[in-house]
Design goal:
Oligomer: single chain
Number of domains: 1
Largest sheet: 4 strands, antiparallel
Helix content: 55-70%
Number of helices: 6
Order of helices and strands: HHHEHHEEEH
Structural class: alpha+beta
Strand content: 5-15%
Keywords: Membrane, Transmembrane, Transmembrane helix
Shape: elongated
Length: about 260
């Protein structure tokens, strides 16, 4: 994956997380009619990345990219984005029928899903895995059937949201709630547009049987590039030895990044 595409993807992911964080906070406020509820969104968005960054950078700063986690996070962030965006408009309806218990349950679920985003975002940052970085190959793609399924899925979701938005005024206790519901509904459409590239990348990750890597060889300290692939048992293994990939030696870089003491 090229540098430009990587920067664009990370920027898109950041804006997606920010939009969802804002909309979740606003949906919670409009359900409870209490502006103080927005503080929970700020707290979630502040604490989660701080804790995750501390764990990954200070406790696991020399950790190497794991192929399974590389694939898993790219799939989970797409699934979480779609689920959270689905839950936002439905939370008001659930709260109407289930009362405060329903509101409490949906609010907890929304913030649990929201708390995953900064963790996934940090897992996508290459700076945390300098000794061994993974990326999709240039030939990675999705099938025509998967493209068709994505299109059908979004058509169904948009149709359901449109029907929900047409709920009669008497369903809500006040006009303010109905206006707030429709306002949030319009934001959901915008969020869905941001999730399309993320869902596309999730399918690319799902289809990937080969990954490119670059970093440092754990034994020689040389600059190491090549590919990883799944073996017959479904385990990710390096495709060949360092010599097979034309490694170049960089002793000072190896000492600095691997923390080797002379």
């Amino acid at each position: 994956m090229g540098l430009i595409w990587k920067v664009e993807y990370m920027s898109l992911q950041f804006f997606l997380c920010s939009f969802l964080s804002f909309v979740v906070g606003e949906s919670t406020r409009y359900v409870y009619q209490d502006y103080s509820q927005i503080e929970w969104t700020v707290l979630t968005w502040t604490l989660c990345p701080t804790i995750s960054f501390f764990r990954m950078f200070f406790l696991e700063r020399h950790e190497r990219h794991d192929a399974k986690m590389f694939i898993r996070h790219r799939i989970l962030i797409a699934v979480t984005s779609v689920l959270l965006n689905l839950l936002i408009p439905f939370s008001g309806i659930i709260g109407h029928f289930a009362g405060n218990i329903g509101n409490a349950i949906t609010t907890i679920i929304k913030y649990i899903l929201l708390s995953y985003f900064p963790i996934a975002f940090l897992n996508h940052m290459d700076i945390l895995y300098r000794s061994f970085l993974l990326s999709h190959t240039k030939t990675s793609k999705i099938s025509c059937l998967q493209v068709f399924l994505i299109v059908i899925f979004y058509i169904i979701i948009m149709f359901l949201h449109s029907k929900i938005c047409q709920i009669h005024l008497d369903f809500f206790e006040t006009d303010e709630k109905l206006i707030g519901f429709r306002w949030l509904h319009s934001f959901c459409f915008l969020i869905y547009m941001l999730t399309v590239p993320v869902v596309y990348r999730a399918f690319v990750a799902w289809n990937s049987d080969v990954l490119d890597f670059n970093g440092l060889h754990p034994e020689t300290g040389r600059a190491w590039t090549g590919t990883m692939k799944k073996n017959e048992r479904g385990e990710w293994v390096v495709d060949g030895s360092p010599e097979d990939h034309g490694v170049s030696y960089s002793r000072n870089q190896g000492i600095r990044l691997l923390g080797i003491n002379e």
